[in-house]
Amino acid sequence: MAVTGHASVKSRGSASTPAGRWPLLGQRRPLVLYLCAIVALDLGAIVLFSATASLRWQDLVTFGALMACGAVCIEASRRLGMPAGVSRDLLSAWWLPVALLLPPLYALLAPIVLQALLQVRVRATVLHRRVFSAAAIGLAACTASVGFHWLAADPWALSRGSAEPILYAVVAAVLFALLNTALIAVAAHTADPDMSWREVLWNRENVLLDVVELCLGVTVAILCGLNEALLVLALPPVVLLQRSLLHAQLQAAARTDAKTGLLNAAAWQREADTEIVRARRTGECLAVLILDIDHFKRVNDAYGHLVGDQVLVGVAATMRSQLRDYDVVGRFGGEEFVVLLPGADADEARQVAERLRMHVRLMAVPVDDGLVRVTVSAGVALMNAHGDELIDLLTAADLALYRAKELGRDRVCVPAAQPPRRS
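Given the sequence above, the corresponding structure tokens read:
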């Protein structure tokens, strides 16, 4: 549930600059204002409900038991490992019951406890992201808690299995999911305005995971309402599900480049080999592009590596937006990207390369004193015309890329076709 934003620094991003010491200051101003507003609203809600809440030992015991279960799940995540980019977990199974069974104050506090444990025990990330995540989850859970307590006169009636309280719990859980998704989506879109709202809000896999989390949360709430000791029976299945989810995410993370989200070099080569074998079998066309950001070192030298990373992210996002779902795109390392175009002939491959080049030229990364713009040079290689093995195609595309740079950069080159091999 972390938020990614555009870095905006002026110098080399050293710790001596304000943005180096406080990464939040390096973000876009609308994003900074939005994050601060959400955190301030969360703090205001905590103060408000603290003034009106009455502490009961039963509530404190239930809260402690659910937080202890969350801590066990976090320790399980720590043992399996959670690198950057892996962000889904099943902690809603513990803070959703807090929202349903306890006063709204506890719903505001539960995410703070668990996010702090994640920061200390699993992976330390940029602090403002962790704080914003806790605030967004807390506000969503508090809203769901207020709604459920307003609908259900006795929240603990949920444990009796009556249809009405369970229905109210499901409604509250859906409200929690929708509000939390909306708060995170606004932050993500503010950080990257070029990202479409559909891309931010709608993802079939995320919706499925949300449904699983909500079902777990309501089920755990019913068990906890019956007897807190039953949480001991609920904990192992939740831990097992979380480990399975993290394992799948770790497998995906092992295939992707951490900075851009594209396939890494090894994963791209495996996918490309598969496509080449298929093209060889079916006789279809196929093309390989290599693109390189022109004078990328100058960007790092002038603005720092934080801005350089944002340029890489921007180029990757631009490329994804201009390619088909089944095109294979990856980062080959440094400032070099590679694309395999199944079914593309010479004309189509060149058109795609030109389209990528033009859209990258239009891209801009904001910095404190203006915008950073870059260009790319591209080399194109065609199956059969330049070889029928991946190494041959990469070599031909790389030679064409070198030629494009020799001719002045910001252009696309296609090498001459190789003569057919004599048998």
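The CA atoms of residues 90 and 241 lie 8 Å apart. Try to locate this feature in the token string yourself.
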